[in-house]
Amino acid sequence: ALSIMLPTFVTEKIVALANEAKMAAKSVSASETMTSSSGLSQDAAGDIDFNGVAVTWEYGHASLMFIKFHSSDAQFTPEAINLTIQAVEDITKRFEVMKVKTIGSTIMLVAGIDDPRTRQEQLSGMVDAAITIRASVFRQMRVPGLECRMGVHCGPCFGAVIGGNGAVFDLFGDTVNTASRMMSSAGSGSINLSAAANALLMPRLREIVEPRAAMTMKGKGVMEVFAVMDTAGVEHLPE
After folding, report:
1. Is the peptide bond before 203 cis (omega within 30 degrees of 0)?
2. Most buried of 87, 161, 212, 224 (most Cβ within 10 A)?
3. Which of these, 230, 155, 225, 227, lies nearest to 194 by C-alpha position?
4. 3-state secondary structure string, the chain?
Protein backbone atom coordinates (compact mmCIF):
# COMPACT_ATOMS: atom_id res chain seq x y z
CA ALA A 1 0.00 0.00 0.00
CA LEU A 2 1.06 3.59 -0.61
CA SER A 3 1.89 5.42 2.58
CA ILE A 4 2.23 9.20 2.83
CA MET A 5 3.79 11.20 5.65
CA LEU A 6 2.89 14.83 5.09
CA PRO A 7 2.44 17.88 7.33
CA THR A 8 -1.14 18.99 7.83
CA PHE A 9 -0.65 22.22 5.88
CA VAL A 10 0.59 20.20 2.89
CA THR A 11 -2.39 17.86 2.91
CA GLU A 12 -4.71 20.86 3.17
CA LYS A 13 -3.11 22.42 0.11
CA ILE A 14 -3.38 19.17 -1.78
CA VAL A 15 -7.06 19.02 -0.90
CA ALA A 16 -7.50 22.56 -2.24
CA LEU A 17 -5.64 21.73 -5.43
CA ALA A 18 -7.73 18.63 -5.93
CA ASN A 19 -10.96 20.53 -5.50
CA GLU A 20 -9.94 23.39 -7.75
CA ALA A 21 -8.55 21.26 -10.55
CA LYS A 22 -11.20 18.54 -10.13
CA MET A 23 -8.52 15.94 -10.67
CA ALA A 24 -9.76 13.39 -8.18
CA ALA A 25 -11.99 11.67 -10.74
CA LYS A 26 -9.03 11.26 -13.09
CA SER A 27 -6.93 9.33 -10.58
CA VAL A 28 -9.33 7.03 -8.76
CA SER A 29 -6.90 4.15 -8.90
CA ALA A 30 -4.19 6.22 -7.22
CA SER A 31 -6.50 7.36 -4.46
CA GLU A 32 -7.62 3.82 -3.73
CA THR A 33 -4.06 2.80 -2.89
CA MET A 34 -3.59 5.52 -0.26
CA THR A 35 -3.56 4.44 3.35
CA SER A 36 -5.97 6.01 5.80
CA SER A 37 -2.99 7.15 7.91
CA SER A 38 -2.14 9.84 5.36
CA GLY A 39 -4.89 12.15 6.58
CA LEU A 40 -5.90 12.86 2.97
CA SER A 41 -9.48 12.58 1.79
CA GLN A 42 -10.06 10.21 -1.12
CA ASP A 43 -10.92 13.22 -3.30
CA ALA A 44 -7.63 14.93 -2.47
CA ALA A 45 -5.52 11.83 -2.94
CA GLY A 46 -6.18 11.81 -6.64
CA ASP A 47 -4.46 15.16 -7.07
CA ILE A 48 -1.03 13.66 -6.48
CA ASP A 49 0.37 12.25 -9.69
CA PHE A 50 3.20 9.91 -8.75
CA ASN A 51 4.05 9.28 -12.38
CA GLY A 52 6.35 12.21 -12.85
CA VAL A 53 4.25 15.24 -11.88
CA ALA A 54 5.55 16.86 -8.69
CA VAL A 55 3.39 18.72 -6.21
CA THR A 56 5.37 21.85 -5.37
CA TRP A 57 5.05 25.19 -3.58
CA GLU A 58 7.27 28.25 -3.95
CA TYR A 59 8.09 30.28 -0.85
CA GLY A 60 9.42 33.79 -1.36
CA HIS A 61 10.89 33.76 2.13
CA ALA A 62 11.41 31.18 4.85
CA SER A 63 13.75 30.71 7.80
CA LEU A 64 15.74 27.46 7.89
CA MET A 65 17.70 25.92 10.75
CA PHE A 66 19.81 22.79 10.95
CA ILE A 67 20.76 21.22 14.27
CA LYS A 68 23.48 18.59 14.48
CA PHE A 69 24.03 16.80 17.77
CA HIS A 70 26.37 14.07 18.91
CA SER A 71 27.85 12.51 22.02
CA SER A 72 31.15 10.79 22.64
CA ASP A 73 29.51 8.81 25.43
CA ALA A 74 28.98 5.10 24.79
CA GLN A 75 25.51 5.37 26.33
CA PHE A 76 24.25 7.53 23.45
CA THR A 77 21.66 4.94 22.56
CA PRO A 78 18.74 5.15 20.11
CA GLU A 79 16.54 5.81 23.15
CA ALA A 80 18.73 8.77 24.13
CA ILE A 81 18.64 10.08 20.57
CA ASN A 82 14.86 9.82 20.55
CA LEU A 83 14.54 11.67 23.86
CA THR A 84 16.83 14.42 22.58
CA ILE A 85 14.83 14.87 19.38
CA GLN A 86 11.57 14.91 21.34
CA ALA A 87 12.95 17.61 23.65
CA VAL A 88 13.95 19.69 20.61
CA GLU A 89 10.50 19.20 19.04
CA ASP A 90 8.73 20.28 22.23
CA ILE A 91 10.66 23.55 22.23
CA THR A 92 10.28 24.31 18.53
CA LYS A 93 6.51 23.86 18.71
CA ARG A 94 6.35 26.58 21.36
CA PHE A 95 8.07 28.97 18.97
CA GLU A 96 6.01 27.91 15.93
CA VAL A 97 8.97 26.26 14.20
CA MET A 98 8.24 23.09 12.23
CA LYS A 99 10.47 20.05 11.92
CA VAL A 100 10.83 19.07 8.27
CA LYS A 101 12.88 15.93 8.75
CA THR A 102 15.53 14.15 10.79
CA ILE A 103 18.53 12.56 9.09
CA GLY A 104 20.48 10.57 11.64
CA SER A 105 21.37 13.10 14.31
CA THR A 106 20.69 16.15 12.11
CA ILE A 107 17.36 17.96 12.39
CA MET A 108 16.05 20.31 9.69
CA LEU A 109 13.50 22.93 10.78
CA VAL A 110 11.58 25.73 9.08
CA ALA A 111 9.56 28.81 10.00
CA GLY A 112 7.61 30.98 7.61
CA ILE A 113 5.61 28.41 5.69
CA ASP A 114 1.86 29.01 5.91
CA ASP A 115 2.70 31.41 8.72
CA PRO A 116 0.86 34.73 9.22
CA ARG A 117 3.74 36.24 11.19
CA THR A 118 6.09 38.80 9.65
CA ARG A 119 9.49 37.66 8.38
CA GLN A 120 11.16 39.20 11.41
CA GLU A 121 8.76 37.45 13.77
CA GLN A 122 9.30 34.09 12.07
CA LEU A 123 13.07 34.35 12.17
CA SER A 124 13.01 35.76 15.69
CA GLY A 125 11.02 32.75 16.86
CA MET A 126 13.56 30.45 15.26
CA VAL A 127 16.53 32.15 16.96
CA ASP A 128 14.65 32.14 20.26
CA ALA A 129 14.06 28.40 19.79
CA ALA A 130 17.75 27.82 19.04
CA ILE A 131 18.85 29.67 22.19
CA THR A 132 16.31 27.77 24.29
CA ILE A 133 17.38 24.43 22.82
CA ARG A 134 21.03 25.16 23.54
CA ALA A 135 20.26 26.22 27.10
CA SER A 136 17.65 23.69 28.16
CA VAL A 137 18.56 20.59 26.14
CA PHE A 138 22.26 20.62 25.45
CA ARG A 139 23.64 22.83 28.21
CA GLN A 140 21.84 20.78 30.86
CA MET A 141 23.42 17.65 29.42
CA ARG A 142 20.44 15.35 29.58
CA VAL A 143 22.75 12.89 27.83
CA PRO A 144 26.38 12.66 29.05
CA GLY A 145 28.77 14.36 26.65
CA LEU A 146 25.96 15.65 24.43
CA GLU A 147 27.00 18.50 22.15
CA CYS A 148 25.35 20.36 19.30
CA ARG A 149 25.87 22.97 16.63
CA MET A 150 23.25 24.98 14.77
CA GLY A 151 22.99 27.09 11.65
CA VAL A 152 20.31 29.56 10.56
CA HIS A 153 19.65 31.27 7.22
CA CYS A 154 16.64 32.84 5.53
CA GLY A 155 15.53 33.41 1.96
CA PRO A 156 13.47 31.87 -0.86
CA CYS A 157 13.00 28.13 -1.25
CA PHE A 158 10.46 25.67 -2.57
CA GLY A 159 8.69 22.72 -1.05
CA ALA A 160 7.72 19.54 -2.81
CA VAL A 161 6.06 16.21 -2.16
CA ILE A 162 8.64 13.74 -3.36
CA GLY A 163 8.61 10.03 -3.93
CA GLY A 164 5.87 7.51 -4.57
CA ASN A 165 5.89 4.84 -1.92
CA GLY A 166 6.24 6.66 1.39
CA ALA A 167 6.02 10.13 -0.17
CA VAL A 168 7.34 12.94 2.01
CA PHE A 169 7.40 16.74 2.02
CA ASP A 170 10.83 18.35 1.73
CA LEU A 171 12.39 21.76 1.10
CA PHE A 172 14.92 22.63 -1.58
CA GLY A 173 16.98 25.55 -2.83
CA ASP A 174 20.05 27.62 -2.09
CA THR A 175 18.55 28.85 1.20
CA VAL A 176 18.44 25.28 2.47
CA ASN A 177 22.03 24.64 1.37
CA THR A 178 23.27 27.84 3.01
CA ALA A 179 21.55 27.02 6.32
CA SER A 180 23.27 23.63 6.22
CA ARG A 181 26.64 25.30 5.60
CA MET A 182 26.04 27.63 8.56
CA MET A 183 25.51 24.58 10.75
CA SER A 184 28.53 22.65 9.47
CA SER A 185 30.79 25.68 10.05
CA ALA A 186 29.64 26.13 13.66
CA GLY A 187 31.77 25.01 16.55
CA SER A 188 30.50 22.82 19.36
CA GLY A 189 27.68 24.57 21.19
CA SER A 190 27.56 27.40 18.64
CA ILE A 191 24.61 28.96 16.82
CA ASN A 192 25.73 30.46 13.51
CA LEU A 193 23.65 33.03 11.62
CA SER A 194 24.11 34.05 8.01
CA ALA A 195 24.54 37.71 7.10
CA ALA A 196 20.97 37.72 5.76
CA ALA A 197 19.55 36.39 9.02
CA ASN A 198 21.63 38.78 11.07
CA ALA A 199 20.56 41.78 8.98
CA LEU A 200 16.87 40.89 9.19
CA LEU A 201 16.95 40.80 12.97
CA MET A 202 19.07 43.88 13.61
CA PRO A 203 18.97 45.85 15.81
CA ARG A 204 17.06 43.30 17.94
CA LEU A 205 20.06 40.99 18.33
CA ARG A 206 22.76 43.63 18.54
CA GLU A 207 23.58 42.81 22.16
CA ILE A 208 23.80 39.04 21.79
CA VAL A 209 25.34 38.47 18.34
CA GLU A 210 28.96 38.88 17.38
CA PRO A 211 30.63 38.67 13.95
CA ARG A 212 32.97 35.80 13.24
CA ALA A 213 35.77 35.82 10.71
CA ALA A 214 34.56 35.39 7.14
CA MET A 215 34.62 31.72 6.21
CA THR A 216 35.09 29.82 2.95
CA MET A 217 32.30 27.30 2.59
CA LYS A 218 32.01 24.44 0.17
CA GLY A 219 30.04 25.44 -2.89
CA LYS A 220 29.41 28.94 -1.50
CA GLY A 221 32.76 30.74 -1.44
CA VAL A 222 33.58 33.28 1.26
CA MET A 223 30.62 34.12 3.51
CA GLU A 224 30.03 36.38 6.48
CA VAL A 225 29.07 34.49 9.62
CA PHE A 226 27.60 35.75 12.87
CA ALA A 227 27.34 33.80 16.11
CA VAL A 228 24.88 34.03 18.98
CA MET A 229 26.99 34.60 22.07
CA ASP A 230 27.47 31.72 24.49
CA THR A 231 26.09 33.88 27.31
CA ALA A 232 22.83 34.59 25.46
CA GLY A 233 19.70 33.19 27.02
CA VAL A 234 16.05 33.78 26.26
CA GLU A 235 15.94 36.23 29.15
CA HIS A 236 18.42 38.40 27.24
CA LEU A 237 16.24 38.67 24.12
CA PRO A 238 14.60 42.05 23.62
CA GLU A 239 10.94 42.10 22.68
Report:
1. yes
2. 161
3. 225
4. CECEECCHHHHHHHHHHHHHHCCHHHHHHHHHCECHHHCCCHHHHCCCCCCCCCEEEEEEEEEEEEEEEEECCCCCCHHHHHHHHHHHHHHHHHCCCEEEEEECCEEEEEECCCCCCCHHHHHHHHHHHHHHHHHHHHCCCCCCCEEEEEEEEEEEEEEEEECCCCEEEEEECHHHHHHHHHHHCCCCCCEEEEHHHHHHHCCCCCCCEEECCCEEECCCEEECEEEECCCCCHHHCCC
Q: What does the chain come to in residues?
A: 239
Residue 49 has pLDDT above 60, yes or no: no
Give the C-alpha distances (Å, rounded to integers) separating 120 from 117, 127, 143.
Answer: 8, 10, 33
pLDDT digits (tens, 9 = 90+) for 53-68: 567 889 999 999 999 9
The candidate with the shortest Cα–Cα distance to 237, out of 98, 84, 120, 65, is 120
CA 214 – CA 221 distance, rounded (Å): 10
Distance CA(187)–CA(18), nearest Å, equals 46
In one letter, which amino acid is 118? Answer: T
The identity of residue 144, as a single letter, is: P
